[in-house]
Write a structure and sequence with these properties.
single chain; alpha+beta; flat
Length: about 200
């Protein structure tokens, strides 16, 4: 076999592997998801067994201890989360009356949840992003500051008319006339009418 034949053979193998990899990836993803579902149900059963004995749910680390009738889980579970095959399983952080277990699949685009009734639901994104987006009941965003109400400009009597030569009206002998603002005039007319009707 010559060097050229060997290079051609390697090129063919490379092309076949390059074409086959994307078709194998969904199989691996389905396999990981199937594992995550089975393990979620296993963790659910262990949490329920602990709940029936002690009256509350607890973190994985507590379930792995011998006390309280345990261990309900083995020593691999040392905290509130457990990782296996790229899946991150999360349970209660401490003593809790409600159960919510999550399994975040590799890539962070999808996660599974199981509730206290053993129902598994599928969600997009990551559990931390969803919990941040969902507001707790009773909490709300701080109210936006309202701009202060604009105060109307003060009523100012009209300026004195200016004659073309620039001299004030008194110098020309014309009487100075300052009209009352329309608002004051309107109120005085209304009050005058009420007084006249009363008399």
């Amino acid at each position: 076999m010559t060097l050229i034949e060997l290079l051609i053979l390697l090129a063919i193998v490379f092309v076949v592997v390059f074409i086959a990899l994307p078709t194998l990836n969904p199989v691996r993803t389905r396999d990981v998801e199937r594992f995550a579902r089975k393990h979620l149900l296993y963790l659910y059963e262990r949490e329920r067994a602990y709940f029936l004995r002690n009256g509350h749910y607890q973190s994985f680390a507590v379930l792995a201890k011998v006390e309280n009738g345990g261990p309900f889980l083995d020593r691999r579970y040392t905290g509130t989360e457990y990782r296996e095959r790229g899946v991150v399983f999360k349970g209660p952080e401490g003593e809790s009356s409600e159960l919510l277990l999550t399994a975040e699949l590799p890539g962070g685009k999808k996660f599974l949840q199981v509730d206290a009734k053993g129902r598994i639901t599928e969600h997009k994104g990551s559990p931390s992003a969803e919990s941040a987006a969902t507001e707790q009941p009773g909490e709300s965003a701080p109210p936006a500051e309202r701009p202060e109400a604009e105060t109307p400009p003060p009523l100012v009597p009209p300026k004195e008319p200016v004659v073309p030569d620039g001299s004030p009206p008194e110098t020309r002998g014309e009487p100075e006339t300052v009209s009352r603002p329309a608002l004051v005039r309107g109120w005085s007319d209304i009050l005058g009418g009420i007084i006249r009707q009363g008399l």
